[in-house]
Protein 1
Amino acid sequence: MADMRVRIGGTEAWLVAVIAAICLVLSLTTDTFFTLVNAFDLLNYSAVNLIFAAGLLVVLVAGGIDISFAVGASVVQYLTAITLMQIGGGNWALGFALSIGFGAALGAINAGLIHHFRIISIVVTIATFNLFFGLLMFFTVGVSIYLLPDWMISRVVLFEHETAAGWAEITLPVAVMAGVLLATWVLLRRLSIGRQLFAMGDNPEAARRLGIHIGAMHYLAYGWLGACAGVAGLMQAHYAQEVVPNALYGRELEVLAAVVLGGARLGGGRGTLLGAVLGLALVSITQNGLNLLGVSPYAFRMIVGAIILVAISMSSESLGLLAEKGRRLRGIHRPAGDAR
Amino acid sequence: MPKLTLKRRGLMAAAAAAAIAAAAPAAAQDTPKIGVVVKIGGIPWFNAMEAGIEERAQELGVEATMIGPTSADPALQVRAVEDLIAQGVDVIGVVPNDAAVLEPVLGRAMEQGIHVLTHESPDQQNVDWDFELASAQGFGEAYGRRLAELLGGEGKYAVFVGGLTVPLHNAWADAAIAYLEENHPEMEQVGDRYGVAEDVDASRRTALDLMRAHEDIGGFLAFGSQGPIGAARAVQERRREGEVKVLGPFSPGQGRSLVHDGVLSGGYMWNPKQAGEVFVTLGTMLARGEPIEAGMEIEGLGTIDPDVEGKDIIVDQLVEINETTVDDLAAMGL
């Protein structure tokens, strides 16, 4: 029990409770939510966002922020697609290698600017966000690529099972997402450089005095996010079967909101992978549930926003604050009582 | 330090001088300058429109450019129109994301003597003319009729639009739904209309959810350039090609393989390239003070019968997209 408490923090436990409540309601009110097919659907279309979230978490933990990763992923899609066509096709291994390489390189640009020029990360990434997207639009003139190599656009089904409700499938993006999540977990929880990332995020000066190489940590965090974004871009191009310059534009805020909802602190030093996954799950499940319930699409954003607000403001931390406030109030009254 | 300030001041003065120098000749010339702001840049539909704008501008010897915002956001369009006003163009063309949001800024443009044209936004306020290559009624009904044909006059269908505030998509949806309700009362619309059809991922996700919620859904009617593609991919993923029909206007190059796979049933469209040409043709006529009257023959529009009250020029120039026409349309770069 003690062990569980260490691993599952307050925010996560609260999110699990909220998600469980939503799932319960949806299972009772619709006869399609609680099916294998729907669960797999949810996994399949959340996979790309989860890959982004894993990368972003690493940067948030290290005390930074990045809003350029989604358009960075679009840049990687183009670079990868064009390189693959130049060399006459390629294969999955090469596709992954190129995406990770290009993605990490874009991340390194952010890290370099942040570390060597001592610019605040949000300023740098707002600039690179515009720079990446501007360069992309300029060089591609907004032209999409529909002719991708066959291996890249043919669907890869890893598991399939025919149920009464149709085919339940696990596709390649889900497996890749699992791989990325595992790698990120190992980095953050099992390697000492992961602990160093937390230390830097919490207190960069203390971390520096401890002998942690701050520059290397910046490159690691942004490079990791860049590589994750590259992989996410490859997966999006895989299932969309085309590369469109603005397909991922705007995704950064969606992912950022979900990761912060999952308990990652914008100031750095705190955040868990489980929280990030749960944050995204909450938003995806709500959206899915609204469609299944046949709620009017006019009400969607209102409901999603309200649920995020409730989830954040009712988290155990804010409840703790309220409780403390209550104690303090009582504390003020007590001396008066003692004086009597 | 003072040196630096001096240098900086010098640079700024130089920049200002350059800006003035650049602006001056533009004002002096009398070749009409036309700027067209579209819903979103970088998607094939508006790339084709841009090609039309550029080709026609070259033919007529006018200056015309297209501006595509990075996302389908009316606020970005307002800013782009403000930029065009500041540049002192003669004609502003807009394909609005939100008719009401653009009203005030278009009004400001007209106050400054700039001619305003819109497309895909009938009854737009503060314009010289709005032109449509398809009447909303005729276009919507054509889709309603085709969907009923494909579904055999019964079953459930869902409707996607580009956004819940896009007037034209909603007018099409209104016409299609009204047609189906009147002529095929056994057909049932599922939910309200979904505002996802300018985003391929959102269309795919919504279509997957709806096929889950309504096992017996027979078709998707998607008004918005990415909607039919996203819905068709969802149908393909769910392995229900041919069983669940997908109809909607889309870019033939993008949807070609889906049409040949039998997932995307097809649709009607007008040629965005032709719309781009009409922007320039009409814009040049307005800038040169030529009248636009009933019975005139205008290239790209045919014989027009403008509604002077509502400032609409509406013609029906529908092109059908199906297995036989899609390759030719795609070859045009659409």
Note: Residues 1-6, 18-28 of chain B have pLDDT under 50 and may be disordered.
Protein 2
Amino acid sequence: MGATTIPAGTKWWSGGKSPFNVNYGKVMMWYFLMSDAFTFGAFLISYGTIRFSVNHWADPNHVFNAFPFAGHANLPLAFVSLMTFILIFSSVTMVLAVHEGHKMNRKGVEKYMILTILGGIAFLSCQAWEWTHLITGDHAVLVNGHIEHWGTTVTKNPWGPEVMFNGQEVATPGPIAFGGYFFGITGFHGFHVFSGVVINVVMYIKTKLGHFDQRGHYEMIEKAGLYWHFVDLVWVFVFLCFYLV
Amino acid sequence: MSQQFNDYPEVTFHPDHSGGTGKIWKIFWVLSILTIIELGLGYFLYAKQAELGYAAVLSTKVAIAILTLAKAYYIVSVFMHLGDEIRNFIMTIVVPLVLFVWFIIAFLADGSSWKNLRNTRGGSRVDQTEQVQPESKHK
């Protein structure tokens, strides 16, 4: 860690050096991540547009209130907080791996890459549980005058406004877009996590084989780290848009 | 100066990597505490949503969004080391993202406008639409 000391009056554009003081691979990783940020941004803003255009939207505190092995306990925000902290912590282990790479400490890089990979797998497992719970969980919905039991899928949203039916409050079908946006965006993010885990496994193997020691630097770990931190960064916004507000 | 980046002669000035892990752990705690505050505000909304007015709910949500932006700043600046790059490079990443300011305002306003149009049967002419009904006596 630490700032780069640059002498005053450096002529960046006179040739013979990188005007950004970064090598090609890292510049391109940053620009890829910027374009990916626009992709995720477009998805999330599209979701926001549709959500703003309807009178009723599923209440996240109601939809996402389950926790593994907790039965029907009402625990809003609990499971998704666990997922958030898993991802933050795996981001920390990733930055520690990059730090060990700066020190050319192969054992340290290996240790922290393993922890980062485990964090990624833990996050994906949580997401698998959450999706399964949503898709298979039955909820009573009033459809055409009779009660049906729906899970949450891309074609069915049982989280609409509640009405009185036979003296009981029962939900009606909500905007169909909810499932599509939720599974689409968290799925696209989950796929990024998955590919990040694959990249990290490759980096771990290359570290183990001593490729970076031969090369004389651990910059590939830094580039993989950029991607992994970006995945955490996107989750911060998914967490905001789908679960918190 | 360590040996690294020897393969990259175009990189002129090398960052100082001699520091410890203190800053990393500090940022970990900052991110955790910001997340806990966000969760606190989230539970506050959950517990009090029925009593709170529109303005109070909206300002709590805006506060949560600002905390999220603070988290994003720390992740990008410290964990991704963008803060250690030179200013020219930082600007090529950050300036294009300013488009999001327009993007968010324009599209959320559009969604909100659609809602109003639907709720008012295509505009602000609810009263007139209702007044049309009696004309059926012509039949």
Note: Strands of chain A lie at 139-143, 146-150, 162-165, 168-171.
